[in-house]
Amino acid sequence: MTINEIQDEIIEEFSIFDNRNDSYNYIIELGKNLPPYPEQFRTDDKLIKGCQSKVWVHPYIQEGKVLFYGDSDSTLVKGLVSLVVRVLSNQKAEDIVKADLYFIDKIGLRQMLSMNRSNGFASLVKQVKLYAFAYQTQEV
């Protein structure tokens, strides 16, 4: 699936929720389905700077596509990580770098998050794109 197809799928999933609490609960559930984060990558260099909670992201390449492991010590943030991983993992580096993550506004995520969480989420997205950019420059 393309990045936009995955975003559209997420928007559709969130369209059934009438209130913020239902959306929060769904995000937490998504985090529970995140694949286990390999312990050997739970290192300071994989921590996302600017996050209120501890957030780890590890990129790797498989068959020319960038994939991500992600985790957090917060159940809500783990769900946010799972959304980013779902949208951007298993994509070409160049597609990740240029991706417009419109699902964030479409599902009302900016309004749901506190200022600190919103800044941390932006740091997460930025770091994931930086990882992809690094892989993209290696390919050239």
From TrEMBL:
A Pfam family this chain is assigned to: SufE
SUPFAM superfamilies: SufE/NifU
Highest taxon, organism lineage: Bacteria
Signal peptide as annotated in the record: none
InterPro entries, sorted: Fe-S_metab-assoc_dom
Residues in coiled coil: none
Domain Fe-S metabolism associated: start-end pairs: 11-129
Similarity comment text for this entry: Belongs to the SufE family.
This protein's name: Cysteine desulfuration protein SufE
Upper lineage: Bacteria, Pseudomonadati, Bacteroidota, Cytophagia, Cytophagales
